[in-house]
Amino acid sequence: MTPPNPDFPVRLEVDHPDRLSRLLIFVKWLLLIPHYIALWLLGIAAVLVLVFAWFAVLITGRYPEGLFNFLVGYERWRFRLASYLMLQTDRYPPFSLEDDPSYPVRLQVDYPERIARWRPLLHWLLAIPAIVVTAVLGLITYVIVVIAWFAILITGRYPGALFNFVTITLRWSLRVTVFTYWMTERYPPFVWA
Is 105 helix (H, G, I), strand (E, B) or coil? Predict the structure, then answer.
């Protein structure tokens, strides 16, 4: 069982599968080519949205809800893709920014009513320690995914401890990303969950 999310306005849930395909692990990266193209185009739009949101928060102290929802949808798509690529699910990710409660990877971000106007200017600086920790965890996670690949190839199962490590690393990354986009004022907690 994956550890519960910490008390933070960003939540990522990934269901641990009972069995995984031993053959699909060879081609998952190839099957995602259409998603890479779509996310590349959405990434360009996300950068433009961040620029508009930067000015909006700086001037009004509010994150425009439409821009916020687009960025949440973009991250939802990105993390579904990452979870699929890291072998956590065999269900092909949907081409959608919308929440799908039936999909085994679910992402939620609470909308903030107000954001301090100074945050767009300095938020990225505050995030540096969390970004460094996330980068280190990311490197370790890639090694763990390789080990999990062999475990899935042999047994058809993702070992629980490895699955949890990957899920928690994805949560760290998501919390830091949302904080860096100044979508929350709360600093990402340094907790292993």
Answer: strand
Counted residue by residue, the chain has a size of 193
With CA atoms as reference, report the closest residue to 184 among 125, 136, 115, 121.
Answer: 115
Encode 107-119: b = buried (16+ Cβ within 10 Å), e = exposed.
Answer: bebeebeebeeeb
pTM for this entry: 0.93
29: number of Cβ within 10 Å: 11
Residue type (1 letter), 162: L
User: Any residues with CB less than 8 A from the CB of 131 and at least 6 apart, and which?
Assistant: 176, 180
In sequence order, which ranges of the chain are alpha helices (DSSP H)?
28-31, 33-60, 65-85, 119-126, 128-155, 160-180
Q: How far is CA 74 from the centre of its chain?
A: 9
CB 28 within 8 Å of CB 34: no
Q: What does the pLDDT look like over 74-123, one tens digit per residue?
A: 999 999 999 999 999 999 999 999 999 999 999 999 999 999 999 999 88
